[in-house]
Amino acid sequence: MMEHDNRLENGVNVLYCGDRNIEDGLILSVLSLLKHTTEPLHIFVMTMELTLEERQILPVSQGTVQYLDSYVRQQNKNSSVMRIDATSRFQAEPPAANLGTRFTPCCMLRLYADQVPELPERILYLDNDVLCQEDYSEFYHQDMVGCELAGVLDYYGKWFFRNRLFHMDYVNSGVLLLNLRQIRETGLFVRCRAMCHDKQMFMPDQSAINKLAHSKRLWGRAYNEQRKLHQNTVFQHFTTSFRFFPWVHTLTVKPWQIEQVHQKLKLHEYDDIFQEYTDVTTTMKGYSQ
After folding, report:
1. In this structure, are residues 253 and 264 in contact, taking their beta carbons and an 8 Å threshold?
2. Residue 122 gets which letter from DSSP?
3. Exposure of 67 by Cβ count < 10 A (0-12 exposed, 13-18 middle, 19+ buried)?
4. Average pLDDT, the chain
5. pLDDT of the residue at 4
6. For residues 183 and 193, what is the distance between their CA atoms, to the nearest angstrom?
7. Tens digit of pLDDT for each residue in 26-78?
8. Cβ of 69: how many Cβ atoms within 10 Å?
9. Contact 101, 52 (CB under 8 A)
């Protein structure tokens, strides 16, 4: 167990999962979180190394994590960033039926969070393409007694995927407040891993969570805005969306594609974060990887 487990009760615990390709998004997302809280931030990055046929998956570099750790501590001395190598856990229970799908195996790493003793009981999971626009303390500090997770309906999936005919309950997994104590008690992630091992699915981890979760708390779209930025948006999730003008097409723009964020999404609300990101990544060049 980690020495600072007790102090994790104070502050905000955040989980990111992925391989080396998430680093740009990770940095941007963390910078946006820093802007909107005065509480200590405890960032956990679950990553792994994997060879899959001719494909090599490399972990988030220790150098990036170490630099981010020093950076967040400059903002608040009680903050921290920690890398967790989940390679052995993933290999012990691989999502075999979904390894050949278009979804990177690393997107399923969150389903192993219950096995990591270092992770605190309350933790906010974020995809690396999520940016924070407003204070998120109300969402993070909500009452989670008896609830496995809290999230927001998937903008498109809510219409097509539901457990009950007239009840929308299909949650987007890009922003999830996890009650790991409850999840460990109910075995939710154990069952999700088994399902991903046995059954090929579209968006495997998200599908398994929605199918198997006993208790989900739903929040308004401001806490996982998947379409366009609004005045009350707290978390903006840069997902693929449909556009109908001048023709029907999909549009995918990620936060680190700054020029496209400006030109295609017409967004300048994050320009201060983008400038900070440019400064940070410039400083990181030459930093030990």
Report:
1. yes
2. E
3. buried
4. 90
5. 42
6. 13
7. 999 999 999 999 999 999 999 999 988 778 899 999 999 999 999 999 999 99
8. 15
9. no
d(CA 111, CA 191): 9
Cα Rg for the chain, rounded, in angstroms?
Answer: 18
174: buried, middle or exposed (CB in 10 Å: 19+, 13-18, 0-12)? buried
What tokens does 188 get? 């939710």
Cis-peptide, bond into residue 246, ω within 30° of zero: yes
Burial class (CB in 10 A: 0-12, 13-18, 19+), 289: exposed
256 phi/psi in degrees, rounded to 5: -80, -5
What are the Cα distances from residue 150, in Å, to 4, 37, 123, 147, 203?
A: 26, 20, 11, 8, 19
Task: Determine the Cα–Cα distance for residues 164 and 211; give it in Å rounded to an integer.
Answer: 11
**124 DSSP β-pair partners:** 14, 177
**Predicted TM-score (pTM) of this structure:** 0.92
Per-residue pLDDT of 87-128, as tens digits, reads: 999 999 999 999 877 767 888 999 999 999 999 999 999 999
pLDDT of 1 reads 35
Which residue from 119, 104, 111 is spatially nearest to 212, judged by alpha carbons?
111
60 DSSP 8-state letter: P
Using CB atoms within 10 A of its CB, is residue 76 exposed (0-12), middle (13-18) or buried (19+)? middle
